Structure formats: structure tokens, C-alpha cells
From TrEMBL:
Keywords, in A-Z order: Antibiotic resistance, Cell membrane, Membrane, Transmembrane, Transmembrane helix, Transport
GO CC entries: ATP-binding cassette (ABC) transporter complex
Single annotated GO MF: ABC-type transporter activity
Protein name (record): Transport permease protein
Taxonomy, superkingdom: Bacteria
Biological process terms in GO annotation: response to antibiotic
Entry keyword Magnesium: no
Transmembrane segments: 24-42, 54-73, 94-117, 129-153, 160-179, 214-237
Keyword Ion transport: no
Domain ABC transmembrane type-2: 15-240
Membrane topology: Multi-pass membrane protein
Location in the cell: Cell membrane
Length: 242
């Protein structure tokens, strides 16, 4: 692993994003628009304050998963990845470069989404807004890590989309948004305990109580999942798509 190569990879990815306005809009604007739509659905009522923090974790996670997995797949199908790995660039350099690049975008995305939710839509939270931003960034990075991992197993963009109902939808159903996790049947509760999105949502909800020490614990679990997924991604990443 080389820090110089990792940063060079990140700079290249950011330069490519700069010339893709549709992707920029999707990453930066879509989570804010979805949060605003949710506020409209609930007419800005108390239920928005209850559901809003959970979706503030889910929306960045989902968007970054889609963008990262498709972008990485394109690198492989276009032959760019094979050319890079023929040079001193290692698989971990490549994945960490993508994580740094999309992590930078995630920081802007999380700040914008939290600003809209708390500042414009008046979502009530006991914790300061900057904690929301920090947690949202780590949740978005979890989506980046999962997207990098999943891209190794897809041959087409259509196959990437197929991972949505297979990997994302079960996590959405079991993360505690629809039914509190401690009220799930025992088997589903056990499954929920090993799904990363459950801890991402828990961390965002813990921000409702600024002094709750569980925030740090849930964030550490999210970081652990992200690191593990990046390591697995480096181990399974293929140079080319068959």
C-alpha cells in the first residue's frame, strides 16, 4: 500500500466526477430531496422527527452504494482497472483511493442533508447538528465500502442493481425503521444484529440524546464493517470482467 498512489487514485476519481454533473447531483442533492419529500409526506409533524434521523442514515448509504458500485464496475469493464493494476497500483490502493474520493463527497453530502433536515425542515434532535453530519458521513462510507465489495461480483450494471433487493432491502426492513429491533421475532432480531445498516440507523437515532455513549459504540461497529468490507473487496476484486 502506498499513500501517494492512494491519494493519486482519489484525485483521479474526483476529477472524473467533476465532469459528470448528473452523478454529482445524484450524490449531493438526492438525499436532501428525499428528506424534504419525507417532511412533506408527514407535513412536518412529530412523526418526521421520529423517522427522519433513521432515513438520514439510510439515504446517504443507499446513494453512495449505487454510485460507488457502478463507478467501480465501469473501471473494470473499460479496462482501466487492469491497466492500473499493471502499474505499481495495488488493489488496496485502488479501493482506498475510491474510499477517500467518495468519502470527501460524503462529507459534503452529509453536511448538506443535515443542514436541510435540521436547518430548513426543523427536524428536532437533542444532539448538535455536527454530530448528525459525522454519523451521516460514516453511514455514507459504509455504503461506499459495500459498493466497492459488491462491484467485484457484478459483470454488468444491471447485476449491480439486482444486489439492491438481495442486500439492501433486507437491511432496510430489519434496521428498526419499520419495527423496533427489540420487538422483532427472535430469528429476525438475530439477523438484524449482524447487519451493518442496523448500527448505522442506531447511531443516528442515538444522536437524539446527545450524551448517549451508545453513539460512539454504534459508529465503531459501522467503521468495523466498512474496514472489513474494504479488505474483502481488495481480496475479491478482479482485474477484468469476463
Amino acid at each position: 500500500m502506498s499513500l501517494r498512489i492512494t491519494l493519486a487514485t482519489a484525485a483521479r476519481v474526483l476529477a472524473q466526477l467533476r465532469h459528470d454533473p448528473r452523478t454529482i447531483v445524484m450524490m449531493l442533492a438526492v438525499p436532501s430531496l428525499l428528506i424534504s419529500l419525507l417532511w412533506w409526506v408527514y407535513d412536518g409533524g412529530r412523526l418526521f422527527d421520529v423517522v427522519g434521523p433513521a432515513l438520514l442514515a439510510i439515504f446517504p448509504f443507499l446513494v453512495m452504494f449505487l454510485v460507488t458500485s457502478i463507478a467501480t464496475l465501469r473501471e473494470r469493464t473499460s479496462g482501466t482497472l487492469e491497466r492500473l493494476l499493471a502499474m505499481p497500483t495495488g488493489k488496496l490502493d485502488f479501493l482506498l483511493g475510491y474510499a477517500v474520493a467518495f468519502g470527501s463527497v460524503a462529507l459534503v453530502q452529509a453536511g448538506a442533508t443535515a443542514a436541510v433536515a435540521v436547518g430548513l425542515l426543523d427536524m428536532q434532535t437533542a444532539g448538535p447538528a455536527w454530530i448528525l453530519v459525522v454519523v451521516a458521513v460514516f453511514d455514507a462510507l459504509l455504503g461506499v465500502a459495500l459498493g466497492l465489495f459488491v462491484s467485484a461480483f457484478a459483470s454488468t450494471e444491471f447485476q449491480v442493481v439486482q444486489f439492491m433487493p438481495a442486500l439492501i432491502l433486507p437491511q432496510f426492513l430489519l434496521c428498526g425503521l419499520l419495527v423496533p429491533r427489540d420487538e422483532l421475532p427472535d430469528v429476525l432480531g438475530a439477523v438484524s444484529d449482524v447487519l451493518p445498516l442496523s448500527y448505522a440507523v442506531d447511531a443516528m437515532r442515538d444522536v437524539q440524546a446527545a450524551t448517549d455513549p451508545a453513539v460512539a459504540g454504534d459508529v465503531l461497529v459501522v467503521v468495523g464493517f466498512s474496514v472489513a468490507l474494504l479488505a474483502l473487496g481488495a481480496a475479491t476484486l478482479r482485474r477484468r470482467t469476463p
